[in-house]
User: Fold this.
Amino acid sequence: MIIYQKVLNNNYMKYIKILSLIFLTVNIAFSQIDRSQPPKAGPAPSINLGNPKSFIMDNGLKVIVVENNKLPRAFANLDIDNYPDFEGDIKGVSSLLGAMMGNGTKNQSKDSYNEEVDYMGATLFLSASGGYVSSLKRYFPRVLEMMADGLINPLLTKDDFQKEKNVALEGIKSIEKDVQTIANRVHGKLRYGSNHPYGEFETIETLNNISLKDVQNYYKKYAIPNNSFLTIVGDVNFDEIKPLIESLFGKWKKGKDLKYQLPAASNLDKIEINFVDMPNAVQSEIYVGNLMDISMTNPDYFALKLGNQILGGSSTARLFMNLREDKGFTYGSYSTASTSRYKGSFTATASVRNEVTDSAITEIVNEIKLINLNGVSEEELNAAKEKYVGSFIMSTEQPSTIANFATNINKFNLPEDFYEKYLENFQSVTVDDVKRVLNKYILNENLRIMVVGKGQDILTSLEKMPYEIMYFDKYGNQSDKPDFSTPTGISVESVLNKYIDAIGGVDKVEEVNAVSMLAEAEVQGMKLQMVSIQAKPNKMVQMMMMMGNTMMKMVFDGENGSISQQGVNSQIPEKDALVMSNTTLPTEEIGWLDDENVKFSSTEELDGRILNVLEINKQTYVAYDSETGLKVKETQFVDMPDGSILPQTTFFEDYKPVNGILFPHVIKSPIGPQSLEFKIINISINPEVSESDFSIDN
Assistant:
């Protein structure tokens, strides 16, 4: 199933490319532009962000109105400017509150609330940190009223709380083995500390600690007007909208001002590697960077942004050109320079193949040191300026951008003309400015190198690098160097034999010549059916159907295969066909017993169970329960058209006997926070099959 998904993705991208080429060809054919000459520079852009009018309500709500009558539309943005809050043992309470807001009010049911928004063709979003609305001018007073109602009178019920909590818990479970997620949260914890708001992260334990009362208390404490900005942009009249705002938001009760001293966060005194072992990783996640004290009010802001743009801000930047275009280590390498009122940061990132992890780190560090040592060229600086000019001008076409600009001026105490002079300030930056600022904020000798990957494959090379290595677990707790020796009494043969014995024994399994299966799942209220037939030694046909229509069909006759989707047929690539031809169906484990490429990978814990994980090949890992011997999950890492690698995990549950052999009757495939769950309706052992069932011409 994974293989045909991969092929379909590749085909989809192929057809998109074909259509793009056709479109390009047509345009070129009809174009009369002389493309041998570069376009002449136009006049300097004139940026008019409007004339904001503002007032402060009695409850402390700061209101900003920008009149723009170009279109009969209006947009409102609410920013609850909460001071960074450490949630501790109930981390996730703000996320749960955000998920529950906008689901109806004390005055209007959830269904009625959402239906009315849809009827008006409006957009309405609320969260723990604010929200926004957008609509046609004629509906805006009502939409704004609904926003105020949802904000002031949220319907925080027990049922909604439990529902959103369950979704959050499933989301955490689905990403427990996601290398990128692990890297991100551990990097934050090590960079800022576990007692800092930027260093904590949600876990199953902290989510389980949260009660509905916690959510309600958080709302009362932090959803307060005296810490908030309401910005309105669009076809409105200030004198008319002001009394409406006062009427709608005047009932919002003022709260206690919340500010406290954030825990100190500091940089390392040397370059250091922080390593987290993830045995299932086929790529290494690399984060390189340091903290920095700089905000938008700092004159260095503009030079820092341009310097980072040149280093790693785009697909034409130095990091990308080096690691992808020149070395081919990754599908992308970028950097960010994030400013903050509290603590900013610089971070360079890359996802690279295991075997080049050390080389990628070397190149990233070298690029950072080179740009600090030699600075940037005039050509690079001018190109970066042009990019900022273009993106800035395009962004000002959006009402949400104007709203954010108006909010930022008040929120960050920026000069009134900050954005009017934005481009001018960028244009005034020199190459000397960039070099000085990069050396000031990007610390060559104080970089934290965060690596999350498969230690068994990469640690030997990392240990040869001139940096000390500190070891951490996937929760950011310091740990010992991982032990890669196979646990006593465990081998590939013992794991596979225990599984075969658990499902019925080798004699029963070898009696199976063919298996047919019908499974059903529900997708957005519609029934999705999967029909599968497998026969010895390696033949299979698999179909996905919805509403009586075949969405996809894959057939493999033992040597060759095809995939059809919506009337388009494609041949399975030769390398994938080779893998399938060497597969023993319907029980792959029988063939794996004699396959020298199958290796023991690691042990891991899942829901209190210890799993033995086998590496079938470099991109397939299968986990078995150490006690029952049953297969629990299979993870395949699929090469995507953009060069990235996508993990796809399938869980096997609810084993039941069929003719004396245990089969899983529930198959789950997490997709983000959701899960596609197939329930087995029927399994038939040794059904009548013929060669025609596996004909690729059918």
